[in-house]
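Standup notes, structure subgroup. Blocker cleared on the xanthosine-5'-monophosphate input:
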Amino acid sequence: MIDPEKFVGEAVGRLREEVPGRAIIAASGGIDSTTAALLAERALGDRVRALFVDHGLLRAGEVGRVSEFFRASGLRFEVLHVADRFFASLSGVTDPEEKRRRVGEAFIRVFEAEADRFGTDRLIQGTIAPDWIESGGALRDTIKTHHNVGGVPADSKLRLVEPLRDLYKDEVRAVARHLGIPEADRQPFPGPGLAVRVVGAVTPERVRRAQVANAVVEEEVERAVAAGTIGRPWQYFAVLLPVRSVGVLGDNRVHGEAVSVRIVESVDAMTATAMEVPRSLLARISERVTRELSGEVVRVLYDVTDKPPATIEWE
Ligand code: XMP
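Run returned:
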């Protein structure tokens, strides 16, 4: 385990060496990039611009929640609203790896344009050790391409600066505490966002369905946790499936899509167990999802698969 105070001093020194002029930083609202952003601000002051990308693949209300978190952390930031660009680059794509690649590329193009405007070629990222290890680093084969690693194509003039790349999660948490970042009881959320929770085509309409279903799962699970009905899961979310099945709406038969609910327990996301939850919780989720997405989603399934053999996300 590192000494946070010593690490901060060294990281600030290294950032000043690596960034002679200005830099932009990709802030996702997660603990890693928020920690990297605050380190960068400490090292570079006004020479750094923290950017939060609203790519249209975020959960409902997320821009507001993340902005609040940045304010509580003391980070100065800007929000870039670029959903159109991301939907255009995902148009017609259904392959999971290709989705990640396109999202990663769209991120890079957005950051290139912003870097140009700010007069820099340095992009600071909150990459931590498990990110590159899982993306085909020294120790493991590629499982999924994490969008924030290896996402800078050879032709990009952006140069990555990664102040946290040797840290593990518990070490980042210690540094974050030291920097005064509030403890957030938030679950992990994949960088490519709802693009990987919408199996099949990524359209604004399907993403909206995933937003509604994810909000229901989050609200109902959090209610059950607060009531002491279940312990806090590692992750809990909904995945929209491109499966057409028959439902009834009033006197009519309708064809709607399906939603799979995923609630898992895990320690480090390397392995996970599908949580045994009360039937009444699943019933409430099913009732709300099919009512709030009436005619659009007609079936709700509970995913009972552990990791391995499945991954936590569907894509
Ligand atoms: P899987 O689905 O591989 O996910 O079991 C392991 C953990 O990583 C999260 N995840 C991601 N995080 N960028 C990220 O920053 C990504 O591209 C990404 N894909 C998956 C996932 O939510 C789980 O916590």
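Discussed briefly. The chain is about 40% helix and 20% strand.
Next: hand off to the docking folks.
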